[in-house]
Amino acid sequence: MENTDLANAIRFLSVDAVQAAKSGHPGMPMGMADIALVLWRDHLKHNPADPDWFNRDRFVLSNGHGSMLLYSLLHLTGYKLSIEDLKDFRKLKSKTPGHPEYDPAIGVETTTGPLGQGLGNAVGIALAEKNLSQTFNKDGMNLIDHFTYTFLGDGCLMEGISHEVCSFAGTHKLGKLICFYDQNGISIDGEIDLWFTDDTVKRFESYGWHVEQIDGHDFEQIDQAILKAQKETSKPSLICCKTVIGFGSPNKSGTAGIHGSPLGDDEIEITRKALNWIYEPFEIPEEIYQEWNAIEKGETSQNDWINVLSEYLDKFPEDYKEFMRRIANLTPKDFSERFESLINECLQNEASMATRKASQVCLDHFCEYLPELLGGSADLTGSNNTFSKHNSELTPDNGGGSHIYYGVREFGMVAMMNGMCLHGGIRPYGGTFLVFMDYARNAVRLSAMMQLPNIYVFTHDSIGLGEDGPTHQPIEHLVTLRSTPNLYNWRPADLTETAVAWKNAIVCDSPTCLILSRQSLPKLPLTKDHISQIDNGGYVLRDSDNPKINLIATGSEVQLAIEAYDLLAEKGISSTVISMPCLDIFLEQSEDFQESVIRPDTPCLVIEAAHPNSWYQLLGKDDAVMGMTTFGESAPGNILFEEFGFTTDEVVKKATQLIK
């Protein structure tokens, strides 16, 4: 069977699926089919019969608009993706959506489409491979030993995230990362020489990458470039593949017209003739399926690994158990008992403490027995307090460390965290100021879409950070995060609430944001009876008989509610103080539970130094929110709280006004 026939199977499955859907991007699959053939048939280590095999090579399609390339490859090589699934391309609830969506059961390693983020995921995956291999590989027994391959296009390299993550990858010598650049010179607006004229080779060589330039339609050149890249173990590799977008189409190849539109029936017919493809739409002859099928080869590779695993168990039984625990994403058996000891320490600690510092206390606890917590900060380690006393520095020459210096790369940090989480065996956490979440927003969104249990340490949570001013003071950010599906946001008020927030983040199966203060906060009057209630997202902190008003607060403003409770009592007005560290979880509780915490038919006053829009789904028309609807100012934090009305007297005044 000729290579061209095998590559053309990819081309025409892609062309036919896009035509059937009447939408899609056929140009990239047609242009990269030859590269995909050589990589997937001759080099990629994977087992379609067991997509979760841990030591498989990872393949990431960063230029995700060419999704039919990936779906064609998965179908042809033997994954559970049928020809009917390909015919359902872009249909509701199909396995083949317009852009790849994370589906490990059929071999889709990550969600891609927003350009450059797949590349960021690939860097994170390669970093995870290096970290775990240096942690577990012993005496020539390599439990972790795989490559990470990614396809990317001009758009991926135009996006700024490509600089963030590729600079990082070069510095960290991620030699098992191999990227294929589809250098076809076309994007949606046309030929890119009017807006993208970078010298990509020099750019990546300056990052410390190994770079090859080849003809992306020459099978021998592709093969040799891959072999060279595999041998270069100290540098990531970029293989610049000169290709023709829409290869084989007589009238549309090499043009923007084939980038994001179907070819049309007439052009498909003449393209079939030009490439000597004699088969009907979605028809693949049996001999081509046989050549493509990767199950037997994959099972052999996996069995070889299982034999290594068995030998490892005999020689290193404790390391084996730890490895298996981590790849299964299980907490240690004594997790609950250890957490109980942390809570006891928190309840006994009387000191005022910023919740960012409280977070570090929690890290000092959890990192001792959860080595899968691989953390870092975007150049704010001392401010985010992400370095625990059990961390070691992850450096270019110590890939087995547990704390990452990401540099000023918020977007890249989160995309890499997504990749590490997707790889498995690692639970990433990463820190920056809450206001700079905006830089990372799209990657945070994708982590929520994929339900990746990253932990985001977002400090400096309000105007309380003070003199750095409105550029650094978050206002609308909590609203944005709380409106994101599958994302849990904790704004704790003291050390104990912070510990509960961290515990929930560690056991959660979705991403979690920890929203933490710069300024010190007093200890809450908590008892052990409160602890399980905190898990529900909101709970009664101070109660009274027949309260006239519910005072609801988060973070630093809980103390204002407590002080207002006492002043209102002096006026003969009873109230309830409700701490709401996680509104998202509270809203998931039953209506009966919510009403057991927030008394119905009783007015509510919410106090939170953030935009108020999060709260209206919980409140009635006669309730009120003390929040922020303007940007902040530059002044000491305590002065700003007074300037914007976050004082005990103002809480008492507004509460009194709400009582009828």
What are the salient characteristics of this protein?
single chain, 660 residues, alpha/beta, Rossmann fold, 7-stranded parallel β-sheet, 5-stranded parallel β-sheet, 21 strands, 44% helix, 13% strand, elongated
Question: What's the short story on this structure?
Answer:
This protein has 660 residues and is an alpha/beta fold. Helices cover 44% and strands 13% of the residues.
Could you characterize the architecture of this molecule?
Helix content is 44%, strand content 13%. It is of the alpha/beta class and 660 residues long. The strands form 5 sheets. It has a 7-stranded parallel beta sheet with strand order 10-11-9-12-13-15-14, with helices on both faces. Strands 1-2-3-7-6 form a 5-stranded parallel beta sheet, with helices on both faces. β12 (427-433), α18 (437-450) and β13 form a beta-alpha-beta unit. The longest helix is centred in the middle third of the chain and has 21 residues, at 295-315. It is elongated, with a radius of gyration of 28 Å.
CATH architectural designation of the largest domain: 3-Layer(aba) Sandwich
Shape: elongated
So what's the CATH class of the largest domain?
Answer: Alpha Beta
Q: Give the domain tally.
A: 3
Q: Summarize model confidence as the mean pLDDT.
A: 98
- Sketch the major β-sheet: 7 strands, parallel
- The tally of strands reads 21
Gap between N and C termini, in Å?
85 Å
Figure out the total of helices.
26
Strand content: 5-15%
Q: Ranges with pLDDT <50 over ≥5 residues?
A: none
Might you state the CATH topology name of the largest domain?
Rossmann fold
C-alpha Rg (nearest Å): 28 Å
Helix content: 40-55%
Q: Which structural class do you get from the secondary structure elements?
A: alpha/beta
The oligomerization state is single chain
Could you give me the name of the CATH homologous superfamily of the largest domain? Thiamin diphosphate (ThDP)-binding fold, Pyr/PP domains
- Spatial ordering of strands, largest sheet: 10-11-9-12-13-15-14
